[in-house]
Specification:
Structural class: alpha/beta
Bound molecules: ligand AOF, zinc ion
Strand content: 15-25%
Order of helices and strands: HHEEHEHEHEHHEEHEHEEHEHEEHEE
Strand order of the largest sheet: 10-9-8-11-6-12-15-14
Number of helices: 12
Largest sheet: 8 strands, mixed
Number of strands: 15
Radius of gyration: 23 Å
């Protein structure tokens, strides 16, 4: 196998951990002796060992069997080995310590704490470094992570469920499922992909949501963000499923400009907004939202329904362009992205 093929293997194996490694990137590392794979390592869980460290640990089990000294080995890793000491140690220093002499890297790490510095440590210690094999695939596979570091903001998606006549719920707040089972299942998958879910007072009090990802595979569950000036923690708060499980960050103000940098500081690369019409429109009015997903049902709510938007063409006026649209069960899933031409 050549380096390109090994890099592709590291990328595709790393993909298995995209729900558990987030908000960190998925990373794969493979140690080779000539053409033979000696060991592999992956960054499996957020906060746990990085890929290169796992590859080194696994290689140590083969030492004096398949190889005698790390200087015989070449390391292929999808992302630049980290230079910093974060939740774990510095991979670049760990690599140097083993005596590995050649490292083939997919992409430079866009994280400014690391970017270029990992490579510098390797080179300063006489390790031969090659960068760039399948770098675009690595960036694509870690879309939210790259987006956050390149744009200095989390990727933000607004999700709404709408009736055919553009309504969100009944004015008397009678509980109604606008969309069907399949669309609601799709929302669970969507939640699993994001680092945080943001909601507001009305959704919290009217729907009493759990706001977690109920899927049948392991997930580093999204953290929860509540933007609410009126909600206060009381005796019944502990009975609300929203406050179970993952950490809730409560902002007691409606200042979106202030929320975004704090979430960035909290390591969030992506945020899913699932809120009522008021907060949703407040977000769409800003320049922060990158994507809008509308699950549209065939059902009408009629005159007593509350509209998502004031005008018929609000979505376009907010600068969004329909990118794709397909059926999920009886509902339609429409994905809108920012129309950059505008
Ligand atoms: C690597 N190998 O497998 C990953 C890297 O908080 P920490 O210590 O887990 O560090 C997270 C940062 O490390 C992350 O933002 C990214 O820059 C890099 N990820 N680096 O050498 C890995 N997952
Ligand atoms: Zn690392």
């Amino acid at each position: 196998m050549n380096y390109e093929e090994i890099m592709l293997r590291a990328i595709s194996e790393a993909e298995k951990y995209k729900y558990t490694a987030k908000p960190n990137p998925v990373v794969g590392a493979i140690l080779l002796k000539n053409e033979e794979i000696i060991s592999e390592g992956y960054h499996k869980n957020y906060g746990k060992n990085h890929a290169e460290i796992n590859a080194i640990i696994n290689a140590n089990r083969q030492k004096n069997k398949k190889f005698n000294d790390f200087s015989e080995l070449t390391l292929i890793c999808t992302l630049e080995p980290c230079s910093h000491i974060g939740k774990t140690g510095s991979c670049a220093h760990a690599i140097v310590k083993t005596g590995i002499k050649k490292v083939i890297i997919g992409s430079i790490d866009p994280n400014p704490k690391v970017s270029g510095k990992g490579i510098q440590i390797l080179k300063e210690n006489n390790v031969q470094v090659d960068v760039g094999i399948h770098k675009d695939l690595v960036a694509k596979q870690n879309k939210f992570f790259f987006y956050r570091h390149i744009n200095n903001k989390p990727y933000i998606t607004v999700k709404i469920a709408s009736s055919l006549d553009g309504k969100s719920h009944y004015e008397n707040h009678e509980r109604v499922f606008v969309t069907g089972d399949k669309a609601r299942l799709d929302v669970q998958l969507l939640r699993a992909k994001y680092d945080a879910i943001l909601t507001g007072t009305n959704t919290l009090l009217n729907d009493n949501p759990r706001m977690n990802a109920r899927v049948n595979f392991p997930v580093n569950q999204p953290e929860k963000i509540l933007m609410s000036t009126s909600f206060s923690f009381g005796a019944n708060t502990s009975e609300m499923p929203f406050f179970e499980g993952k950490r809730v960050t409560h902002f007691q103000h409606n200042d979106i400009d202030c929320v975004i940098p704090i979430m960035l500081e909290n390591d969030k690369c992506s945020i899913l907004i699932e809120a009522g019409p008021k907060l949703t429109n407040a977000f769409l009015k800003t320049n922060y939202v990158d994507e809008l997903i509308i699950y549209k049902s065939q059902k009408k709510l009629g005159k007593t329904g509350i509209s998502w938007f004031k005008e018929d063409n609000a979505v376009e006026n907010y600068g969004f362009k329909l990118e794709s649209s397909y059926k999920i069960g009886t509902d339609l899933k429409e994905i809108y992205k920012k129309d950059e031409e505008k």
